Structures are given as structure tokens and as C-alpha cells.
Amino acid sequence: MAPLLSANPADRIIVALDGMASDQALAFAAQVDGLRWVKVGLELFVQAGPEVVAQLREQGLRVFLDLKFHDIPATMAGACRRAAALGAELITVHACAGSEALKAAQAAAGEGAQGADQPAPTLLAVTVLTSWEEQRLQRELAISQGIAERVPALAQLSATAGIGGCVCSPLEAGALRAQHPEPFALVTPGIRPKGAAVGDQARVMGPADAIGAGASQLVIGRPITKAEDPSAAFVACCRELLGPIERHD
Question: How far is CA 123 from CA 20, 106, 184, in A?
């Protein structure tokens, strides 16, 4: 498996290409200086198809394919096998699919990557979506657990099944990192740099704080993609990550 991170803070930031058509996504990714990682989500993938992953990789980018697979074990395995063969290096699955499905997905992803001579991917289990607020989660899904209990329970289920990491709110990163040391990956959406609007995320944190809490990588979308100068916004996020590092030297 290729290492996910280097000393460069740009490797910590995954820019979400949400709300873009294929040509927009490719043009945007090409214009952001220093960009290393991009996220392809459901909307872009449905509009553009698997080809967009290959096209982004041809631009030298690493791809987080965020389709959040949740199905019976055989279907999840088939989907992860094909996603890995595309060259996606991060692939999301729902932890609540259960251990049998997670194990099948993990095994199939490795087979798919090897058969296509692609990097071995890291599967990331989605615990609780960052748009959920606790009372609504409990009420609408009839779940007695609070988010603080449910997230680590699903993370442990995933780790036991051999999944390489989790997607979680940055507010859960500290507790999960204590439970699961590196190289277990913790990828956090809900990141809002200084001065950015919260939007539809209910549980958010700044970039440096999220890394300090134990996150491996950060997913940042609109604060960069909707900025007047996306390259400058990306650089500003990288600089936010450098601050805590410099203070510890």
C-alpha cells in the first residue's frame, strides 16, 4: 500500500469536487497549485462515471472515491473490487453494513487493485454522518445510543473486520485515535477553515485543530471550491496546518 501521507501538509487535505460536472471537476483540479488529493462523491460519479477517476489520476492526483457502499456482502465486495481496479486509494463503506460485508469488501478491494496493477486502497468505514444531530438521530432511527457511544462502537466493528480506517466528525477524532493508533486512518469532513461558513454540517472544526485531535486527512469542499481564488484558499488551509507543527518544534 502506498503511504497516504508525507511531511507536506497538502497530503493532508482532500478537496471535495462536489457539485461539479466532469469538465468542471477536471478543470478545477488542474488549476489548484499543489493539489494532491481529490474526493469524487456520488453526484460527480453518477454524472461522469468511472472515467472521471481515471482522468483525475492521469492529472497526477490521488482519488478518494466516496460512494459509501452499503449492501449485502457480495454486492459490496463487487463494488469495492471494481472501485479499487479504477485506482481509487480511499474508498468508503458504511460500517453498519456489518462485519461480514466489511470483511468481504476489504478482501475484494485488495484483489481488485492487485489484478489491475493499482495501489492497494484503504477502505474507510463511515460511522455517523456529520450532518446528523444527536437527538434527531436517536428519534428518527430509533437508536438509544448517543453519537459518542455509536461512533466508537462502529469504528471498533470496522477495525475488527480489517477495515483500514474510518470517516468521522473531527469532534470524534480524539477519542477514536486513542482507541485506534496509526496507521488506522481517520478522515474527517466537517472542516471549516478560519472565516468559512458552517453550511449544512452540524459538527465542525478547523483544520489545525482536527489534525491535532488525531485526524489523518481532512476533506474540505466549499471553502476551497467556492473561493474567489481556490489556489489561495488551498494554500491558506495548508498554512493553518503548519502552525501547530511549528509551535511544537
Answer: 24, 7, 10
pLDDT at 204: 60
Annotate 17-36 with b (16+ C-beta within 10 A) or e (fewer): bbebebeebbebbeebeebb
Which residues belong to the active site?
A: 68
Q: Report the length, in residues, of the chain.
A: 249
Neighbours of 242 (CB within 10 A): 11
Instruction: Report pLDDT digits (tens) over 30-79.
Output: 999 999 999 999 999 999 999 999 999 999 999 999 999 999 999 999 99
d(CA 147, CA 56): 35
Q: What is the DSSP string of 201-236?
A: -SS-B-HHHHHHHT-SEEEE-HHHHTSSSHHHHHHH
**pTM (2 decimals)?**
0.89
Distance (Å, whole) CA 224 – CA 162 = 33
**Spatial separation of the C-alpha atoms in residues 249 and 226, rounded to whole Å:** 34
- Is residue 148 helix, strand or coil? helix
What rounded mean pLDDT belongs to the chain? 90
Handedness of CA 94, 202, 36, 5 (dihedral sign): negative
